[in-house]
Amino acid sequence: MAAKEERQAEGLLRIAGQKKGLLLTASIFSILSSLLQLAPFYAVYRIVEEVMAGARSPSAVDGDVLVYWGVVAFVALVAALVALYIGGMCSHIAAFDILYRLRVKLTDHVACVPMGYHTRTSKGELKKIIEVSVERIEKFIAHQLPDIVSAIAIPLLLIGYLFGLDWRLAVVLLVPIVVGFWIQARIFAGEAGQEAYRSYQYAMEEMNATGVEYVRGMPAVKIFGIKAESFLTFKQAVGSYRDIAMRITMICKTPYSLFFVIVSSLFVFVVPAGVLIASGSPGNQSFAITLILFLLITPSLSVPLLKLMYIGGGLRDIVEGNKRIAAVLSEPIVQEPDSPRAPLAYGIEFRGVRFAYEKPDSKHYKQVLTDVSFSAREGEMTALVGPSGGGKSTIASLLLRFWDVQEGEILIGGVPIREMGTDRLMDAVSFVFQDVHLFYDTIEENIRMGNREAGREQVIEAAKRASCHEFIEKLEHGYETRIGEGGTYLSGGEAQRIAIARALLKDAPILVLDEATAYADAENERKIQQGLIELVKGKTVLIIAHRLSTIRMAEQIVVVRDGSIVERGTHDELRDKGGLYEQMWVAHRSAASWKLGKRNAAAGTAEDATKNGREVRARVLLD
Amino acid sequence: MSYWTNISGGNPKSLWPSASAALLDGIAKIVPAALLVELIRIVYRSFAEPEAGLDTGRMWIVAAVLVGWLAVMYGTNSILYDRSYKAAYDVSAEGRMKLAEHLRGLSLGYFGKRDPGDVTNVLLGDYGQVEHTISHNVPQLISAIVLPALAVVGLAFLDWRMALAMFVALPFGLLLLALTDSLQARLSESHVRAKNEASNRLQEYLSGIKEIKAHRMNGQRFERLRFSFDRLKRASIRLEGIMGPLVMGAMLLARSGFTIMIAAGSYLLAGGTLDLPSFLLFLLVGIRVFDPLTVVLMSYGEIRYSAYSAKRIMDVRKELPPEGGAIVDPTGEIRFHRVTFGYEDDKPVLRELSFAIAPKTITALVGPSGSGKSTVTRLIARFWDVQQGEVSIGGTPLREAEPERLLDGISMVFQDVYLFADTIGNNIRVGKMTATQAEIEAAARRACCHEFISRLPQGYDTPVGEGGSTLSGGEKQRVSIARALLKDASIVLLDEATASLDPENEAAVQTAINELVADKTVLIIAHRLKTIQYADRILVLEQGRLAESGTHDELVGQGGIYSRLWSIQQEAEGWQVK
């Protein structure tokens, strides 16, 4: 446990290492500032000395000397603050620059890992790591690192100085320091402390989890009028978090208070020793002066020592975030071939593909594709149909190498896609999925994503072919209209058409389509359909169809169920077979004729519809 | 003052025990300082009267008292420790529970409007910050205010001129700090803007990660994101760079009192109106008196940060729950009377909308996206109150309706279904908490989900939702219909319940919906016009206004919007991609 945390701390130091120069400067100025902050105390000492010297005849006290040291104290304070500022700026510039680099690195990295990572990890979580966990590092680099350096350096320098002044008093001073830290170390290392800390972590996670569920489920709670239960679980979690936090506080109470009182009252320990020595030689006035210097300076020793303790507590938070950052960065990226091969043709072949989203040792492990082999000939349309969850979408995403297959191979024009390299693969394939994402940019740029070299005319041409030119022209700023966030929001159907224009502009030889009309209203649906007809011309098309009527004319229909191919052929061939496709076709026809309400011809009870396909088919035939 | 109110969750009195302990602890710390002064006076006397020598006897007494006083300080420190942590954990625990209770009363519209992540953050993160500030910053603030105040009073009795010199610059320091506040507010604003911008860009990037991979726009190449990170970096550095000197300036001004006092002292000494021991006393107190204030200024950023957290909490708590105690009869007529409503004040979504839905009839809402269809269903469930006009059910205006009882009479099936992290059986039971297992299974059968539930490893006891096994969209949809069947409410609202399903699921969900709507007052939104062909009445919305209404046959005959949509869709139905 301890070793692991040490390694995490090392990770933090490595990150900090990128800005060695700035951070070294920051640390030097931090020490310098701390030293300068001691100067006023030295000034006081010199004034006291002057006062003592003039004790017998107060009129002999030189006012100029007093004012001189008063000014010295002030100037030293100014210098200390300037040094603090310079050091602080160095460490902050370093910190914010490191945050910047880390964020760029993280966002770059997450775009290179397989898509699987993104389906596994929630966007919110990833966003939190890139925003919050990274932000925490700022505290470490900008504040804690220079603080630690000066909190260690200052006591060492001071104690060294005090040893030089009077080693006997200095030794006495060391005793409470050592005792204080020993008391501290005992709680953190002790079994009770560790145990309490673990249950604290647990209680906090529990509270967070129930809190998230409480807020997210609130609409459902209200709609169904659930009175208390979810509130009670959260309340319980909050209560037990408080109880455990209080228990820990109680465990730490005695050692903490002891440490605090001892370390913040160091000078008290010097007094008896000083008096003892002074009693030995009552005439020794120079020792008395030294004692005063000791008493003036020792309180300044307490501040950095107390700081060290607080920093220790704060580090834990960052270590936690650092772990998450490290986990993201250690996620393996998609392997690129050393010498990418370019395919000469654009037929697609799946050869004995087996695939699961999880690793075999995961408890959620589930084989999604068990043995998928088929080929889609160049220039032809191949449709994937089958029940949801059967693996259609998986097949389409594997072609884009969003994941790598565990067994078997996927080839384009005879070249395995692993050997093509991401760039060539992405040039060869374009896709239109159901969930279109438009970027916060102009419509023109959103279309141009398909081909960055395209000129304005080409963009407009693509928009026309995708039937979106018309609605774009109607927008206030036309192609310059910004999408989202204070700009214009497009409807799902319009977004689809933009995506089609994008794909048209890209003009890749292979097209992957997830039949995209589901969300659209009537008018949009028609337009999307027109766009798609333009898009598929002359391409090798792999289409996931939801409405079977859409793909009746495909050259090949592949029926996928439970991760393997159960039937394949043309529409007519498959209907004649009377297998799964035929059943789906019948279901499709009856769904299409579904009407809500009492007069519905196809509405039997639930049992009828699912169990008894034949009867439904009979009804459809009667229609 | 509002700071104290906010961080204590509206009850500043709850901070009193810890504040008084901090006061006690602060006073206890004065004694060693006084003893130190006494020690130095003893040494001084040995210089003033060398023949008497060092009074070691008296020094031993001082040393003994000092060591003994450690026990007293241990005592006061323990009390402070106890009380401040107790206050911190109590305030946050109580606050969290109160806020949770408060959230329950807020309208559904509030949850639709705000990102649930934000609300969760207030409930968990912001209270964590408050916890920290009560246990750490509050005692600091108390010492910073009280100790200098005590010193001013005490020292003024000794020599008011020296006391004046010592504190003369302090008000200027505080003034500078106050001025800093407004500058800080402006700078923070641009910093917050940069931060939000970066956050939005990151959201955009992560949401579009699929396209970014496909179009090879990752990392460096996605410049918008990189620029926003860069701007955030600059804004952060600027904030530090400008705020630092100001806070330090305030510190310096306060502390300059020390030098002014020495100058004043040397003048007074020369004039003979001040004796050396008093001067020594001022010197020794003066060098330490601003320490607590410095500690507070050093953690100024942290204190401000927690003040923002506290304010966010109070903002949520200021949100008013919908009021009203009238009991609505859900079997009555639903009426919209000249309703105008918008989510933002100047952008009405519904304009002067009037219609009535007779009990136990099926009414369909049709219109292009953005025409206000979903808003109509939300107003019926009183997610929001209307700005003009009136929505009523069974003659009771919803503005006066008891919100929870109203929802008892309504079932809603939407596209997105929320499942609790619980068993699938309990997720159905949500419809009626008192339902028996037999009732649950009956509802599941009617909603076509019994079959797939039976196939799950633990049947009805299979955990679902976060961390449990995941259900497909169609399966979730059917679970939500089973809930609604179990609830058996008189009003049923259906919003695109079948839009994104594959044929097999769609057929099953359709059957389930037909079970649900029998003998109910139904309002349905559907894109597929065929689905609602036999509705008793179809309302066509366009830009928040009622454009047409009637039965399918009437509307097709009219040759208006509906008839155009109908013919387009008829065409689309038979469409083939090739």
UniProtKB/TrEMBL annotation, chain A:
CDD domains: ABC_6TM_exporters (cd07346). It comes from the Bacteria. One of its GO terms (cellular component) is plasma membrane. The chain crosses the membrane at residues 21-45, 65-86, 145-163, 169-189, 256-280, 286-306. It is found in: Cell membrane. Keywords: ATP-binding, Membrane, Nucleotide-binding, Transmembrane, Transmembrane helix, Transport. InterPro entries: AAA+_ATPase, ABC1_TM_dom, ABC1_TM_sf, ABC_transporter-like_ATP-bd, ABC_transporter-like_CS, P-loop_NTPase, Type_1_exporter. It holds the Pfam family ABC_membrane. SUPFAM superfamilies: ABC transporter transmembrane region, P-loop containing nucleoside triphosphate hydrolases. It is a multi-pass membrane protein. One of its GO terms (molecular function) is ATP hydrolysis activity. Residues 348-587 form the ABC transporter domain. Residues 24-317 form the ABC transmembrane type-1 domain. This is ABC transporter ATP-binding protein. It comes from Cohnella fermenti.
